[in-house]
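Sharing a chain and its predicted structure for anyone who wants a worked example. Both blocks are below, sequence first, tokens second.
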Amino acid sequence: MTSRLVLLGTKGGPAIRPGGPSPTSSLLDMADRKIVVDCGLGVARGLVETGMRLSELDLIFITHLHSDHVLELGPLIHTAWTAGLDRPVKVYGPVGTADVWLHFCASLAYDIETRIDDEGRPDIRDLVTVLEHGEGPVLSEGDLTVSALRVDHPPVTDCFALKFEGGGRTVVFSSDTAYFPPLAAFGRSANLLVHEGLHPEGLERLVSRTGNGARLREHLTASHTFAEDVGRIAADAGVGRLVLHHLVPADDPEITAADWERELRKTWKGPLTIGSDGLVLPLD
């Protein structure tokens, strides 16, 4: 298997607009595993577009329970099930993830029971194991290890950066977070640091377009990382490449990739990728 990271959805926030990017989700092919990181709206379609068969679904990680990271968790697994999934799937996430799955299954009970009886499918509820975790080691299977770091994303307290190590490669996802210097030590020398980003001019344009501008500005500045500070984290960590993800804003035509790069280059001089939906980054 070719090791790669595919950015399926790169937009921060749950709203979608015509022709715009999708909310947050990624596919990490590493250590002979297919790993989905976050399940924002559009993740199932995004995975299919990579060429992956949904019946190959293997591991899912949820960084936190904001809707733009978890809204399509249940629908992804159910869609994979209707596409022939008959193997175990493990879902890792913060406290509350099991309830998301449980209540999804309850809401689709009629459809699930009908398909089991009418189509002879295995019980989807028996295929899925949800494992809730906190900070520290999360998984160790074969060549793959995963660990978590609690980051600063108020008012959400259970929000975790994730570090994936396998096949001689390390990929770190910041999750959603305010500027959080301990993330540099967590991501030390990673091949890829996939970090969220907030653009200062884009923030003001976004705030001016909304009816709750003051509250929105307060939330975004307290809970997310300005691009210049993202560069500081990458430089302090000494990563191989910085990948900007969960862009806020991601769908403002006046905030381009060049605008993002100008902010990041104030503090980061190394290899840089501004994320976009469908972007493939080889790890080999």
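Comments welcome. The CA atoms of residues 31 and 167 lie 5 Å apart.
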